[in-house]
């Protein structure tokens, strides 16, 4: 009878046994590696809990799994400890169970423990929403997941954040397929599984933005609607991307591979590192699948933009219209299709002043931390046995950054028009209209 | 009145990465780039062939490189902060080989950034991120940190972006990120002049061959000329439209060569206080420009940078 019930979740049946077998060897070695190396560092966001406590949660999950492996080999029932939040007493959830609910609870709990362990070992964040979407049929409801997650945290005597589980993705997205019926422009990045239901046919580009402030100013300008490159999607994961944001972009890219995805990052070591996290994954996440977008195109800001900016900031009264602004503006206008009418007006309304980009960019000297970080990134890149063109570009940009001792930040702009204009130029150049 | 220079030859893709520094001897141009090797191209042979490639010189790439005026000693600094010295082999092969180790590690010396060598290669001066100057004495078998100069209080010190040693070895000049230019007496370690700065990063400083003038240039896009007898500002060369990354005096001290981030190289006459030639072989950044020591009738110079190539120019016979 129990077996019969269990077969309603056949996919999980397989994963339980595989994961269990894998657990004693690989998971342990991963964990010890993660512990001995400490935090893998810059490319991940982890809560500020001490590594010790994280390690102890990892240990406890592994103890549980190990004891289950033992039980399996001894033909004993499998048990998971759980502490009731109401009574504070610990009880066990076991398999086989006498009721369907018992089986479900055991299976759900085991899956949560597994995901939590993964997140801790790789030092990444997962969302409760993400857990639910791993197996909606099993969990049945988001609420069920939320309760179990809180039970697990209580059982281990830690806060939920210390399981590296958060309430929702920190990423934001805006664009035509995502508006809500309440008219909200900006929504939370949906789970990767929801991508199949999205109709992205009218979408011609996607822009992944490092900073939320930049994202918000572009949204308020409705850049996703008025861009010369056509309709687009704007998104940000607010700095270093969380797992679900990356899974989402990966899913979009594999479902709609013809839509180019661009990245708009600061020209500083963090910007380069974040770009690399999107493209290649983070150090501690090498085993993760379906989270990277190697085809992500680096739109800017790059060292070559520095030169352009510099030309525009020239204090002299430049009379030659063929240099700098004049040229780019005229080519832009001639390349515009009718749908870009609004942005042409926008471009026109901007004074051709050399100083106009100043509001949007900020040039700063590298700090000691920046330089250290850049050198560390260079070192990581040089350890690749064979650098591809992408990695050579990253190396080159980092070296020039160090050489110039400059970084170039995209500001929280009041005058987002500048940014929009710059993006128009870049996107039309890339799409071969110029 | 202008001077004419013709492109004598271009070594395309002399490196697989941006060329950050070049240095010239009477017979060769050494080049360092974002790749790990230092390359040596012969300038006394047709087509400027690659005659040596020092592999794994700097694992993360090399940003500064200098050679002594006598062409016997070279020094280079890599992106990981490591400082290396090189010398021409005693075997007569003309090849470069590792010279003495320079213990550059540790907090006390700071991370080396720019460097300069004295005429005979016995003195090596480096700047640090903190703006300090380290003076090393190099001899066969050993190196010794001889002196450390501080521009002033820790608060006012700024990244030392450029450095030069006067030909007579008596003075060291440094250019800083905050625009400051200092000239030190190498004997006493005292600051001789604190020159009116450029207010913006000074990416190149160079003593005139006779040691009577100092030129400084950088993000102000101007070259400032100082007389060293009284430390006076005597001239300003304007005309570049981008950051000036590199400057070099011709052997005679008559001309200054400059290279800017927009790919333009200019030759300036000191007498006329004017630009006499502009070359824009590339739109990519020039990061290093050098005159070749005069060996024949015509003056020659070499430029390199983000286009990864070495471009050699020769003075056209007769002036236009």
Question: What does the secondary structure layout of this molecule look like, with pairings?
Answer:
The complex is a heterodimer of chains A (434) and B (320).
Chain A: H1 2-6, H2 10-37, H3 51-73, E1 78-83, E2 90-95, H4 100-122, E3 126-127, H5 128-134, H6 136-139, H7 142-156, E4 165-166, E5 172-175, E6 186-188, E7 205-209, H8 212-220, H9 223-226, E8 232-236, H10 243-255, E9 261-264, H11 269-280, E10 297-300, H12 303-312, H13 325-335, H14 341-349, E11 361-365, H15 368-382, H16 389-404, E12 406-410, H17 416-430
Parallel strand pairs in A: 3-4, 7-8, 7-9, 9-10
Antiparallel strand pairs in A: 1-2, 5-6, 5-8, 11-12
Chain B: E1 5-11, E2 19-24, E3 28-33, E4 38-42, E5 50-54, E6 62-67, E7 73-78, E8 83-88, E9 96-98, E10 112-117, E11 123-128, E12 133-139, E13 142-149, E14 160-165, E15 171-176, E16 181-185, E17 191-195, E18 202-207, E19 213-218, E20 223-227, E21 232-237, E22 244-249, E23 255-260, E24 265-269, E25 274-279, E26 286-291, E27 300-305, E28 310-315
Antiparallel strand pairs in B: 1-28, 2-3, 3-4, 4-5, 6-7, 7-8, 8-9, 10-11, 11-12, 12-13, 14-15, 15-16, 16-17, 18-19, 19-20, 20-21, 22-23, 23-24, 24-25, 26-27, 27-28
Keywords (chain B): Repeat, WD repeat
Protein name (chain B): WD40-repeat-containing domain protein
InterPro entries (chain B): SKI8 (IPR051510), WD40/YVTN_repeat-like_dom_sf (IPR015943), WD40_repeat_dom_sf (IPR036322), WD40_rpt (IPR001680)
